[in-house]
Each structure stands twice: as structure tokens, then as C-alpha cells.
Amino acid sequence: MNTILHITKSEQWEQAKNLGSYRGDTLDSEGFIHCSTAAQVIWVANRFFVNQKDLVILCIDSEQVKAEIRYEAAEVDNLFPHIYGELNIDAVFQVVDFEAGEDGFFVLPKEVISLE
């Protein structure tokens, strides 16, 4: 299994479960849902989510994703997975609470480390 990760608000994930699919807020604006590998998730979190609350990490089995996945360059030297289209929720095999430390920054949760 090839796991990719996506950070989102817990409220958005709850809504997605009721709808049967997840549409990241960037799908409409940028045409894809941002995802990361485990090695990338902390860089993303500490760049774009500092001090945010009520976040979760969606652990996604890329082999179960029905939409197209492209690995594309971002602002760093490696490739980030992007899902082009809605994410079918049955591709999500685990949801991990993602809380910042007292300083507002994140560390990788043990549940995600074990996926590496």
C-alpha cells in the first residue's frame, strides 16, 4: 500500500463522510487536492497550518483513490501527490487527530510515523 496524507479541518472531514466524498478547498481554486508523503507533512503543516486547531490527517491508500493522482513539484525540491477530482472516502483508511504543540508548531503523530 502506498500511503499519502492530507491535512484538513475535522469539520470538513465530518461533512465529507456525510456526502460520501471529500472535496478539498483547493479543488475548485487550483484544480486538485493537496496531499503529502509522511516526510512532507510536517513541512506543510508548519508552513501553512501554524496555530490552527481541530485538524486531522487523512491517511489515504493511493491504490484505492478513484480520481487521478499526479506527483508534481511544489515549492521544495521533491514531488507532492495531488488528487485531481473528489476523494472517495473509502480510500481513507485512518484519520489521525493533528494538534499543534504549545508553540503552535506540529510534530508527526506516532500513528503516522508507524505508516512509514
UniProtKB/TrEMBL annotation:
Gene3D superfamilies: Protein of unknown function DUF952 (3.20.170.20). It comes from Nostoc flagelliforme CCNUN1. The lineage of its organism: Bacteria, Bacillati, Cyanobacteriota, Cyanophyceae, Nostocales. This is DUF952 domain-containing protein. Pfam families: DUF952. Signal peptide: none annotated.
